[in-house]
Every structure is written in C-alpha cells, then in structure tokens.
Amino acid sequence: LSSVPLQILFYVNGIYYIFYFLATLAMIVYKSQVFSYPDDFLAPDLALLFIMAILEVLQLYLGSKGNLTEEEAPLGLSLVITVGSVILSVYFLVWQTYVLKADVIINAVLLFTYGLESVLKVIAIAAFVS
C-alpha cells in the first residue's frame, strides 16, 4: 500500500529543499550587504529559515517513515508539520523584509511541491486506513 509517487516526491523535495535553503540563505546575506537591511529583521529572518529547515527534516523523515511502514500516524503528523512549513514559505514569499524575484520563484516551486505532497499524503492515509 505504500505510495511510490509519494516516496519519490519525498526524495525530490529533500534535494530541492537543500537548494532552497542554500539559495535563501545566500539571498539573505546578499540583501543584508546590498540593501539597507534593518538589523532588527536580519536575525528573525535567519532564525525562521533554520526553524523551517528543522521542520522540513522532521516532515520528510516522518512522511517517509509513515509511507514505508504503512502507518497513518507518522504520515498524519508529517501532514500537520507541512502546514507549518507552508506558513513559513509564505512568510519568505510575502512578508520578509525584501522579496526578490528569485524568492518568488523558489517559494512558488516549494509551495507547489508541498501541495502535491499533501494531496498524495491524504491519498496514502486513506489507503492505509481502509
């Protein structure tokens, strides 16, 4: 009953998130050097990026574990954690101090993968329960 497309998406999302994290970190450093980035906002933006990385690791681990063991509890918890990751991604898309076009593009891709992943998680949970 394990979902192969979901497992593939976990792998792809893990690779993409490494790129996302490094690109966002580089852009925050770039913005702090080029623009007049308020010091009061630099630390929270960096902290939120690292919190998002921790949530992403948990989400991918629990989702992969739940899918491979065909247990709905870890997969459901992964789905809940995805909501927090989506909120943080929207923060980096809309509410951070400076939003570059590159921010919009990489966050749009990340939000698309979260949406697709969530749909596949719900389908997998429904298959495991029945």
Summarize the structure in words.
The protein contains 4 helices and no strands. The model has no long low-confidence stretch (mean pLDDT 95). It is elongated. It is mainly alpha-helical and 130 residues long. It has helices spanning 4-34, 39-69, 72-95, 101-129. Helix 3 (72-95) runs antiparallel to helix 4. It has one domain.
Quick overview of this protein structure:
With 130 residues, this protein is mainly α. It is 88% helix and 0% strand. It has one domain (4-129).
Features:
membrane; 130 residues; mainly alpha
How many individual domains?
A: 1
Radius of gyration: 16 Å
Q: What general outline do the C-alpha atoms trace?
A: elongated
Q: Quick one: biggest sheet?
A: none
The end-to-end distance, rounded to whole angstroms, is 10 Å
Summarize the helix and strand pattern as letters.
Answer: HHHH
Give the helix tally.
Answer: 4
User: What proportion strand?
Assistant: under 5%
How much helicity do the residues have?
Answer: over 70%
The average pLDDT value, as a whole number, equals 95
Q: What's the total count of β strands?
A: 0
Label the structural class.
mainly alpha
* Spans of at least 5 consecutive residues with low confidence: none
